[in-house]
Amino acid sequence: MNVTRRTVLGGLALGGMGVASARPGRAQSRKVLRIGVLNDQSGPYRDVSGLNSVVCVKQAIADFGASAKGLEVEVLSADHQNKPDVGAAIARQWFDRDGVDMIIDVPTSSVALAVANVCREKNRAYINVGAGTTELTGRQCAATTIHWAYDTWMLAHSTGGATVKTGGDKWFFITADYVFGHDLERETSGFVTAAGGKVLGHVAYPFPGTTDFSSFLVQAQASGANVLGLANAGADTQNCIKQAHEFGLTSQARIAALLMFITDVHALGLETAQGLVLTESFYWDLNDKTRAFAARIKDKTPNNMPNMVQAGCYAGTLHYLKAVSALGLDTAKTNGAEVVARMKAMPTEDDAFGTCKIREDGRVLVPAYLFEVKKPAESKGPWDYYKLLITTPGDQAFRPLADGHCPLVKS
Amino acid sequence: MIPSKIAAGPARSTLGTPRTHALAMGVMILFVILAPLFLYPVFVMKVLTFALFATAFNLLLGYVGLLSFGHAAYFGMGAYVTAWTVKNLGLTPELGILLGGAVGAALGLVFGWLAIRRQGLYFAMITLALAQMVYFFCVEAPFTGGEDGIQQVPRGRLFGLLPLHDDRVIYAVVAVIFIAGFLFLYRVVHSPFGQVVKAIRENEPRAISLGYRTDSYKLIAFVLSTFIAGIAGGAKSLVFGIATLTDVHWSMSGEVVLMTLLGGLGTVFGPALGALIVTAMENYLAPFGAWVTVTQGAIFVACVLAFRRGILGEIAARLKLDL
Amino acid sequence: MHAIFGIPAPLLFGQLLLGLINGGFYALLSLGLAVIFGMLNIINFAHGALFTTGAFAAWMLLNYLGLPYWYALFLSPLIIGLFGIVLERLLIRRLYGLDHLYGLLLTFGLALVIEGLFRNAYGSSGMPYQIPRALSGAVNLGFMFLPLYRGWVVIVALVVSLATWALIEKTRLGATLRAATENAALVQAFGINVPRLVTLTYAGGVALAAFAGVLAAPIYSVNPNMGSNLIITVFAVVVIGGMGSILGSIVSGFGLGVIEGLTKVFYPQASDTVVFVVMAIVLLTRPAGLFGKAA
Question: Is the pLDDT of residue C180 over 90?
Fold first, then answer.
């Protein structure tokens, strides 16, 4: 019966249109190196990394002189919306279908871990810059994973340690309810109690999606703590700080913004952010090299100065390209673990972080700088926000190798 | 209750299998077999699991006439249970998936019993509220991993023998699950039980006066629907190796309603077609951010205003077929 | 710092205050929903999205036209009300006479469209909206700390809710509205333009949602998900209060806000689900809701 065959096929044709994009086949060209920048482009972390990270990756490709060396590099980017299933699905699709060879950035630790797993399964290089969880170089380390810029242990040691030393001994935590928040809270609590302080209480809030922290701040107020520990980042941290001022919490407690970036200080304004103590591994105004790098980027991102995540995307890409150049494009496309091994064998060298070593567990040993946010009167202009208090060199800033229980490390 | 006029086909005996059904079934099975050759297998598996979910949902909406606005609860709990047992108890995949289905059914039994006391709108509101409770339970409960979800779920070995790592092997398994589930639901609909259920939808007081315990029939249909939904969820978590809060969120409930509405409420093959179109649309629009949401909303509005019978429903009505 | 039942007073009263604020939003939103359902027999799933639109309108008025909060309180409901008239005329009108569930599905689709458009334009984490200077700062009452703006929200929500109730129950316009709900044909026979009344009712309910949105903007940051986070809880509130009952919405709204606040103090993990548990209990015992008329 012609009619029935047609009707059913007609229905299939409708589906066919949209399905066309699911065809495999774009992966065939073997002469192009593809880098995928996967991060949050619309949610609470969009200013922490977002599209500015993509700009930094492209800058690294230009600074490396890829086209002069005969290496054609393509950059893809996508928004993982802070959801592990979305991030993992994009990674899988990028590797299976689109010929991507390396994934970089990936803030939001729950997504970072899911993507690390996919990269390990498919043997592709993975440079995580945006996420904080120490699991990436701990129990869930992999031969394909490298972790740049920072992690929760470094933050707890630097910011947490400094706050405790200056009299902050009664803590209350407001924690983003996912692996990053819990890691950061746990590690900071460890430093607090080791230094003789006490954790009076903590509360975890749904992430992402919470914009009103009043209920948690009321609990913090009632606990009698003298330090409000913010185990969160990005827009969440900004909202907590603003609302803490609204509720008068700042008269009884100091705020320890355990993870904060220059982009957050910019959004809050010096009036609100002055006096806050935070840790980053990069500051554009630190030395001549960082200023030169920042100047190159500022042209392309006129409203933004790079923070440690965006600088990390630059440095990570640069180092990756050096390794690919040494091993050849074919190896890069088939064996991510070998490229990562090569990256670990060479010290990193770039304008943003200087010279650093990469450890066996994938941890990049960048220096940790403890900054204090300037008062409005002390600042000479936009983005002139930080006073350097303490520098911790890379080999002391991170968790000792043995404590991580990374299976790659031979004990 | 959804008026029966939408779902009514031509007045003919449906106890035998009409030729159209056999043909449509054949085309569908052919598509399932050939698809991985020219489409990305993981994409097709996503379509298959959602098609199964939507067809199970349609059992309630199109045939019983009950709009369950919280069906993601059963799908998501199936996903979580399968993921957790396979990862932590070392259960083989088929047992994990069956367990997911069983949990979906158990939850369906409890929620269905609560909700069936009310009709129409109230029924929808209750199912939505109960699903929200499941969502918040999943946020708090330690075993679900909260926002992180259950990650690194191994695909394992089917029956302890056949390793499922290869996308093509697991595709075959998922295809079999889909076809089996679909045939099961088809059989339920075209059976004496299915006839009674359709009678209840058309005129419940009359069915009661004929001596049928309508609440029991509705509840059984509810449980069958949630059982298959749980199986679909379990299969999905194995394919992607992850179970997250997205699977129990009310937006997932909305999506399955969209697929069924778009494909055709009272048709057998409609929801599966709807699943294919919606998943493909999402895949195509994903790089463009929230346009997926906007498009979904627009399709809802368009369908309700002008296109109530859905694609296959319209085709069936115009050609006077029973699809 | 004294304690009540072992709970420090600032914590108890603080959470109660926050509960009342939430309750105020629940009351304003469920009022609008109840009025719309009573008159149009439509479950307006788009209510949350219109709440969000009200907040965005306030933000846009400030950032594009320089009009601060006090203007937004009046302009935003007006603008969104007009939008509501357009929606009703174009889309909602075609649903009368159809099964209720189509109204649910259509407005659900509308909500997705509105929220998707905002998310595309402004991202999902929110745009900050300053508390108006006259209301910033806080008062230390001794037994608790009261941020002025939040106290203001509770008072305004209460006043507006009661005013709406008075409008519907005590005025002639309200009487006409109630009569049209019961028997539209008869009221039309008296010469009253019922379709126009219906349109205005929808616009009024929607304007209430937008008003709540402006109130919420400084607290929640103006973000596309504000509405969808609230709307399902608001549905539960409406069901508890009774689908067409105005007084029911106000009482249940504030009441449930307080219950939620208290749950946060004594048993925080359950604070999200307590509203639904109450709803399930109410549905099993008094199916028409606490103040509703039995169907």
Answer: no
